[in-house]
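S1.2 Input.
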Amino acid sequence: MKLMSQPFVSIIMPTYNTESEYLHESIKSILNQSYTNFELIIIDDGSYPAAKIVLSDITDKRVAYIENQKNSGLPYSLNKAIKSSKGKYIFRMDSDDISLPERVQKEVAFLEDNKDIDVVASFAKTFGSKEVLYSSYTKDEEIRAELLWKNPIIHPTVAFRADSLRRKKILYKEGIVSEDFEMWSRMAFSEGCRFAVIPEVLLMYRLHEGQVTAKKMKQLRISSEKILEETFKKIGIKYE
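S1.3 Output.
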């Protein structure tokens, strides 16, 4: 596929103190995609040492590097990358995961064939400290129902229809730890956006020691409770 002057896809990859080996593998998994008309926006949220050291041997012109002056949090970095993006579709990617070679091609094809869908995700499989298959419901009405009690969407598998974000001025809410769950709930129940999940593993999700601390798990649980309470208010149900 010939690379056009205007990228059709923008892939946003925030990073903060990611192991250099993991970051390099993640970047390579994007650069080796079967679909080639994309920009990869890597946004370094104040890492030490800076991620640009890892990028020093990467000369691919599709890669753009943005460096925050200080650590500002994941939602801030995601929003900054979204605002910098130029593509028709915006893909999420974590800096330690592996996108399978046909991930971008298959998610683009799905969005091209399903004009009513604003967000598409996929199944994922973990690797590293243990192996688990992450799956979910696949249809919009099922995903909406599941959003009323938990987060069914695997964040780094997501692709957005960029026009849906820009037209509705949708960005991640800053200052919370469950920024993805909050965003899906807001898009589904306030903005009328539609979701789908491709029932296929398109991403390898790395698990490693120290990835999620007990403290963060508690913060995620408290944050999710607040999001559910707000969602129930929106749809007129008392949350207890």
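S1.4 Remarks. The beta strands are 9-15, 38-44, 63-67, 89-92, 98-99, 119-128, 133-134, 159-161, 195-207.
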